[in-house]
Specification:
The complex is a heterodimer of chains A (323) and B (232). Chain A is an alpha/beta fold. Chain A contains twelve helices and 13 strands. In chain A, the strands form three sheets. A six-stranded mixed sheet of chain A has the order 5-6-7-3-8-9, sandwiched between helices. A four-stranded antiparallel sheet of chain A has the order 11-12-10-13. In chain A, α9 packs across α12. Chain A is globular, with a radius of gyration of 23 Å. Chain B has one domain. Chain B is globular. The chains are: A alpha/beta (323), B mainly alpha (232).
Chain lengths: 323, 232
């Protein structure tokens, strides 16, 4: 659905250098700060930024194609909306321009819980409300098949935030390609099924899950545990061999271990032993640098394994090392 | 579809009265000039007000502020961006927006021209009704050319900074009567209202020149807006 072939683009001071990527239906994320090129990547897919070289295809055509343009929705951090129109008028106009059958704008806004914005003029909306309206338009459009969202959980009306992940998953299941650009690994993990990690305009790597990256990160896996008595749990965790370190953070307990299953089992035993009430237990996403390091580590490990297989197949001397 | 594309710009004029403050102020100033000429009892009152005050000063600034109000004081591409985001054609959207600016300018400029000719009418001016009609025609043509001129200006620079630039260009080049003046609305409008003509062109030639200038500016503006990306 979205294909980048040797794409190069520039927006000072950032340069995207010969990116080749493709995404099909489903939920995908591009992880990196805006300076790494995520938002620029979305604009290229929406045909809003000029390419220096390479080719971008969306729905098997150029993103500038009139047919494609109507089926692509880009929601940046500050979405452009016609400020003189009321919210209901915006949704009606958008439906007309996209060539959709008419539907009740209030119902569309209600999908994100912001139907109370219907009579308001766009010019009077707070930036968070305007973003919620733009997201409601994009997510409830029957015509849109490619959704390009910049930081969908940031700067959005709180009523909409709670409903967004499920709505995005529903669009993914319907066969839409949802591409999220985010600087938050947690948001990427919550919203998408696969991740592309960008740094300074180049792809550092791809990963199917952030847990996988967490296992490879040099610091090990971190788990955040919310319990009724953190002090008792800390004491119990200290006795577990699979736990390398423990700490308290914002009322929760953070435990670090070498691998996720081992750490989860140790935390489970500690919870039972300390007889505390467990509220939440989740793997903490790695930091951006840890994730990038982990992706590089996976690539190196894969290369070394391939080298070892080739070496044994060709019966090379065992001391030969990969370069 | 075109009506749908033009609607947000038209509603911006109607629903944001603040944006009409500046055009309103220029209208009041023009009426002030006309009333002053009438009280003075000037023999060629309408002639003086239209040629010396309205055409060279007030009409360009009136249209400048009207185009700014329609565009929301942004570039043409930025003004079209909300509709382009919903899949509208950038060129058609730009044309629709410029169409609204053109219509508003023609109506305001033409009506005000007729009103000034009527109010400032002196004993030496042609019959009031005929003069008002001729003034409305000339001012409407001039307003259309200025609207296209400033719409083209709104495609220059990232944030439409070419609009004031073209105002200055019109001012500087349009003052003379040489070849350069032929490219500006000012010289032709002055000629149509009975002032000095550029390169001794006839009134009819200047009218045709204003129509051509309008068409060229509008099409060039739409073409440039299509190629431009709004600032992020």
């Amino acid at each position: 659905m979205i294909t980048f072939e040797a794409v190069a683009a520039r927006r000072a001071p950032l340069t995207l250098a010969r990116l080749s990527l493709s995404w099909g239906p489903g939920l995908h994320s591009v992880v990196g700060t805006p300076a790494d090129g995520g938002p620029l990547l979305l604009e290229l897919a929406a045909g809003r930024t000029r390419l220096r070289s390479g080719r971008v295809e969306v729905l098997e055509a150029s993103p500038l194609d009139a047919r494609v343009r109507r089926q692509v929705a880009l929601v940046p951090l500050e979405p452009p909306l016609p400020d003189a129109l009321r919210t209901v008028e915006v949704l009606t106009l958008a439906a007309t321009l996209r060539g959709e059958p008419p539907s009740d704008p209030k119902v569309r806004l209600a999908a994100l819980g912001v139907e109370s914005l219907a009579p308001r003029r766009v010019g009077t909306l707070a930036p968070e409300e305007a973003r919620a309206v733009a997201l409601a338009e994009a997510l409830t459009s029957t015509r849109v098949r490619v959704l390009l969202l910049e930081e969908p959980l940031v700067g959005v009306d709180p009523r909409a935030v709670a409903r967004l992940p499920e709505l995005l998953r529903a669009r993914g299941r319907e066969g839409c390609a949802v591409l999220v650009a985010t600087a938050s690994l947690r948001d990427a993990g919550d919203l998408a099924d696969d991740h592309v990690l960008l740094r300074g305009g180049t792809v550092v790597g791809r990963a199917a899950s952030l847990d996988e990256l967490a296992a490879f990160s040099p610091g090990g896996v971190r788990m955040r545990i919310l319990v009724s008595d953190p002090r008792a749990l800390l004491a119990a965790l200290a006795a577990e061999e699979a736990v390398d370190a423990v700490a308290r953070s914002d009322g929760a307990v953070v435990a670090r271990g070498r691998d996720a299953p081992g750490l989860a089992a140790a935390v489970g035993r500690a919870v039972v032993a300390s007889a505390v009430d467990l509220t939440e237990m989740r793997i903490e996403p790695p930091t951006m640098d840890e994730a990038r390091g982990a992706v590089a580590g996976i690539a190196t490990a894969t290369y070394e394994a391939a080298h070892a297989r080739t070496r044994s197949a060709l019966a090379l001397p065992s001391e030969a090392q990969p370069p | 579809m075109i009506a749908g594309l033009a609607r947000p710009s038209a509603l911006r004029l109607v629903r944001t009265p603040r944006s009409l403050l500046a055009p309103g102020a220029w209208c009041v100033l023009a009426l002030g000039f006309a009333l002053a000429a009438r009280w003075r009892g000037a023999v060629h009152g309408a002639d003086h007000v239209l040629v010396d005050a309205y055409a060279p000063l007030i009409l360009p600034l009136l249209v400048y502020t009207l185009v700014g109000a329609v565009l929301g004081t942004r570039s043409l591409a930025a003004s079209a961006a909300p509709l382009v985001a919903f899949g509208a054609s950038p060129a058609r959207t730009a044309l629709a927006i410029v169409g609204v600016a053109l219509a508003a300018s023609v109506i305001a400029g033409g009506l005000l021209g007729a009103l000034l000719a009527f109010v400032a009418h002196g004993a030496g001016d042609p019959p009031a009704a005929r003069d008002a009609l001729a003034s409305a025609y000339a001012c409407a043509l001039g307003s259309a050319a200025y609207a296209g001129w400033f719409a083209l200006g709104a495609t220059l620079g990232k944030r439409g900074g070419g609009r004031p630039l073209l105002l200055v260009v019109d001012w500087v080049l349009g003052l003379g009567r040489g070849v350069m003046a032929l490219a500006t609305p000012r010289a032709h409008l002055r000629n149509l209202l009975g002032g000095p003509s550029p390169m001794d062109w006839s009134g009819r030639s200047s009218a045709a020149a204003l129509v051509v200038l309008t068409a060229v500016c509008v099409l060039l503006g739409a073409r440039r807006a299509r190629a431009q990306r709004p600032p992020s």
